[in-house]
Amino acid sequence: MRLWSRFALLGVMVLLGAGCTGQETAKSAPASKPHVDHQQQHTAQHQPPASGAIPQSKHASPASGTQPAKQPEQRALPDSKHTQADTRNNHWKGSTQLSEQKPSAQSEPLIIFKGSGGKKAVALTFDDGPDTYYTKRVLDILKKEGVHATFFVTGKNAQAHPEMIRRILQEGHVLGNHSWNHPDLTRLTPSQAVAQIERTNTVIFNLTGMRMLLVRPPYGKLNDQLEQRFHQLGYTIVNWSVDTRDWAGTPTAKIMRYVQNQTGPGGIILQHSAGAPGHLDNTIKALPHIIHYLKSHGYEIVTIPELLAKPAYVGIR
């Protein structure tokens, strides 16, 4: 009896032990579920976004304004050899327009008022021509004095007096572009302003086979947009540092004072070479005195390309 009781007691204890183990296992099973959810959440955060979606950075702070990092934009790098070849071959090919140039990496003024002053040289410049009255007289004086100048011509006058254009070049002077009919370019649209320059270049090319690169805007006026546009088109914009105000009928003695007071190394002297008879008489009277004054004070009288070391033309045929 005792033996049977012991067996029965042992069986009860085994049954009780198995029940406790099952309860503990059942209670611990839910603990694995948060681990599975965490893994799913962690994986979802690193999945690539759907097409077109922009992933949001967890570290972006609205308060600080920090934005998610952007991938750098890929830009094609220019082929330096190709660019140099294009520059060398940028000659006249029958078109009145130059290929548009990208701005130079080196900083340079968009409008030039004077030379560097590295040597004691000045440039005489004459606007508005040519005509057969004053331009002829100016050329006669320059030839007698043995100096060369730069003539900023209008297309309308150049077309009317081609023989004067030829004489200017034959006697060693330089041509520059002064628009078609002398408007205020800032009152025109950019395309109209460019057309003023290109139309004049067409006339000069048809006469000479050369395209002018030097531009002087009427009244010396340009806005920022036109400065950039002309520069991109490859033009050198040249104004002046010495204004004789001869166009206003300024007396000869006063013209001389302007020259004496304003001229220095690298100076660019503004005068005119076209107008109604009587309008520029003081220019003709003053010009020999200006030349003598400059020479006596050690100035070399040069053209704009010589003063600025910039080309005057492209496409010589």
UniProtKB/TrEMBL annotation:
One of its GO terms (biological process) is carbohydrate metabolic process. Residues 120-302 form the NodB homology domain. GO terms for cellular component: membrane. It comes from the Bacteria. Keywords: Hydrolase, Metal-binding, Signal. One of its GO terms (molecular function) is hydrolase activity, acting on carbon-nitrogen (but not peptide) bonds. Residues 72-89 have a biased composition (Basic and acidic residues). Residues 1-26 form the signal peptide. Residues 92-107 have a biased composition (Polar residues). Residues 41-50 have a biased composition (Low complexity). Coiled coil: none annotated. The keyword Nucleotide-binding does not apply. The keyword Signal applies. Residues 24-107 are annotated as: Disordered. This is NodB homology domain-containing protein.
